[in-house]
Amino acid sequence: AKEQGRNTYQFYTEGMQDREVMRLELDKDLSKALANDEFVLFFQPQLDLESGDVTSVEALIRWQHPRRGLLSPVEFIPLAEESGRITDIGRWVILAACRQLGRWKNGQCRNLRIAINLSGLELNDDSLVDHVRNALRSEQVDPSKLEVELTEEIFIQNIEHNLNQLSKLRQLGVQLAIDDFGVGYSSLGYLRDFPVDLLKIDRSFITDVTERHDDAVITRAVINLAHNLGIRVIAEGVETEEQLQFLRDHRCNMAQGYLISRPVPARDLEKALAKGILSTGL
Ligand code: C2E
Ligand code: CA
Ligand code: CA
Ligand code: CA
Predict the structure, then answer these.
(1) Where are the beta strands (DSSP E) in the chain?
(2) Would you tell me which of 68, 78, 120, 175 could form a disulfide with 197, CB atoms 3.0–4.6 Å apart?
(3) What does the record list as coiled-coil region(s) (predicted)?
(4) Quick count: other Cβ atoms within 10 Å of Cβ 20?
(5) For residue 24, how far is the Cα from the chain centroid?
């Protein structure tokens, strides 16, 4: 047992060291990733449940790492937040999303909106709003085509600053969505004090929504709360037909998840829409 304990311990420290080495290495690589143009946006369709059309897509960043292949944001966004590189990455995301909207302006994708993710740290940046304005202008994009997804964390710290940033974004005409709604530990007061366009019900409530009574109750309550406040609702993480039917039955406005499509490169999205696998209603 002692022998085993020692091995376990060694294994554990080795694991820790590996992770630390990998972290440092990734952080170093991250410093070159922007200059080397290694980031790419994938797009996941958001389905309007009333019309049955894809009316928007969420932009999800990936890192095409020269040696490790395609990396998920969960592997590098936290790192980028620690080092402060998130600000520059966020600026790239904003510009890339606006460029995509610019490219889609005249084709079958012309009605699509793009939702981007911004972390609380990105909201700290005082020049964020200028950057968004400039990106929209340089690509000549209608601001209402851009949506920003933010988590409730922004209503816990720096509240005044964050609300100020949000109202400036909204004055530009950008739409605001609350991401991962229901898991953020913030009060609901902001829904009264601040105009939000969209609530995204967190995937953790949707996963078992057709099996667990409590998840169904919470999901219905969130939909009703939002609707009574004049806010639209989207459910994330929809993986089954049963979940989709539940959401339709309870008048959820939109749905997003693997059932409809995984996040895909822009070209794949365009092809799927062209083939009529997904419809924008044109
Ligand atoms: P999120 O904003 O909550 O995005 C949803 C995540 O759930 C995405 O993971 C998406 O691929 C995944 N997903 C979508 N549908 C399903 C489903 O049906 N089942 C399951 N199991 N998962 C589903 P992804 O792309 O790995 O992104 C993870 C997180 O990284 C995002 O969570 C977001 O917080 C962050 N992120 C992604 N792109 C950006 C970005 O450009 N900037 C910032 N700051 N954060 C980003
Ligand atoms: Ca999101
Ligand atoms: Ca989410
Ligand atoms: Ca999430």
Answers:
(1) 39-48, 54-65, 69-71, 113-117, 146-151, 175-181, 198-201, 232-235, 254-255
(2) 175
(3) none
(4) 10
(5) 26
Going from the C-alpha of 182 to that of each of 47, 178, 204, 223, the distances in angstroms are: 21, 10, 9, 12
pLDDT of residue 2: 42
Give the residue whose CA is nearest to atom 27 of ligand 1: 73
**Buried-exposed string 222-254: b where 16+ CB fall within 10 A, e elsewhere:** bbeebeeeebbbbbbbbeeeebbebbeebebbb
Tell me if 117 CB under 6 Å of ligand 1.
yes
- What is the C-alpha separation between 203 and 126, in angstroms, rounded? 31
Q: Show the tokens assigned to 125.
A: 């940046």
- Spatial contact of 220 and 214, defined as CB atoms under 8 Å apart: no
The pLDDT tens digits of the residues spanning 121-165 come to: 999 999 999 999 999 999 999 999 999 999 999 988 898 999 999
Interface confidence (ipTM) of the complex: 0.98
Contact 271, 48 (CB under 8 A): no
Interval between CA 200 and ligand 3 midpoint (Å): 7
Residue 242 CA: distances (Å) to CA of 31, 53, 259: 44, 19, 10
Residue length of the chain: 282
The torsion of the CA quartet 123, 238, 268, 98, rounded to 10 degrees, works out to -20
Does 57 contact ligand 1 (Cβ within 6 A)?
no
Rounded to the nearest whole angstrom, what is the distance from the C-alpha of residue 193 to the centroid of ligand 2? Answer: 22
